[in-house]
Design a protein that fits this description.
Elements: H1 2-26, H2 51-69, H3 77-91, E1 96-102, H4 108-117, E2 124-129, H5 141-147, H6 171-185, E3 188-193, H7 200-210, E4 218-225, H8 234-242, E5 248-253, H9 258-269, H10 275-285, H11 289-296, H12 312-319
Parallel strand pairs: 1-4, 1-5, 2-3, 3-4
Amino acid sequence: MLAGRNARCVAFMVLPFIECLLRYLYSPPRTALDASGLPPQKSNKSPQIPSLLAQLWETCKVSQNVEAIDPDLVGRATELAAAGAFLASVCTGTAGTLVVSGDPGVGKTALVQRACASLHSPAWVLAGACLPLASMTVPFLALRSAFRRAPQFDGVAYPTLRTAGEASHDVPGRIDDWLDELCLLRPVVLVIDDLQWADQSTLDVLMYLIAGPPERRLGIVATLRSGEVGEGHPLQRWLADIRRMPRIHWMALGPLDRLDTGAQVSHLLGAPPHQTLLQEIFTHTAGNAYLNRLLVSGIPPEARHLPPKLPLDLRAAVLA
C-alpha cells in the first residue's frame, strides 16, 4: 500500500513534466514545410502515445479528479480505474460481473456509484439494494427497486415479477429476455447493493443472468459486506458457484492507510489536520472512510484532539 501511495505521489510531482514532454514529442513542428513549400496540414488523428506513458497520464488525471472532488474516494484511484475498465469492457460488448467486497463503511457503494457516473459511453444504470428484513421475505426485492429506474419503450415489454402464490420458474427467463432487448439499444449496468441480504429469488435471477450470453452489453455489479458472510451463510454456496463461472471479477476494498486517512480528513475539515488529531482519528476508525466522516463532523479545523464524547451517529454506527 505504501509503495503504491508513494508511486502516486511521484506521479503527481512529474505530471507537469509529462504533459510538456508529450506535447513536445507528439506535436508537429510549427515551421516544417512540405514539398510544396506550404505548412503541412493538421491531422485529425490522435497522437499515438506510448502505452506506458498513456497509462501513467490517465492514472494521474483520474487520481487528481477523484481526490479533488469526493472525500469518500480518496486513495481509491487504482480501484476506480479497475471498475472503469470493467464497465468500459461491458459497453464494448463483453458481458461480465464485478463483486466488490469489504467491511461496512469502507466505501464500496461510493466507488461503484462514481464508476457508473464516470462512464464515457451512454448506458442505463439500474440500481437496487437488498434490505435486512427480519419478519418477512419480499421476492426479487432488489430487482424490483432497480427496475423502477428502467426506461420504458414501445415494443419492449417490462417484465412482470411474480406476486404471492404465483409460480416463479419463468421469471428469470422473462427478465433475461427483457434485458436482451434493452442491451440492443444501449449498454445496461445492473447494480445490486448489500448482496449479503439478498433473498433467494434475487440470487437465482442473478445466477441466470451471469450465465447468459457473453457478447451482450450487460454488466452486473454487486457490493458485499465481507465480514457478514461466514460459514453457514446462505450466500456462501452462491458465491462458490459463481466462482466457477466465466467473466467474474472480484475486488476487495480495504480500509484507508494513515496517509489516505489524513487526505480524507483534510478534505472534510477544509485544512490539513493536526497530527495528534489525525492519530486519534486513525486509532478510532482504523481507516474506515464512513467512520472518519462521522468522527470529524462538527470538529473545527484547528482542533488538536477529539472531543471527549463521541458523536451519537458514530456510536450508533459502531453498535450497528
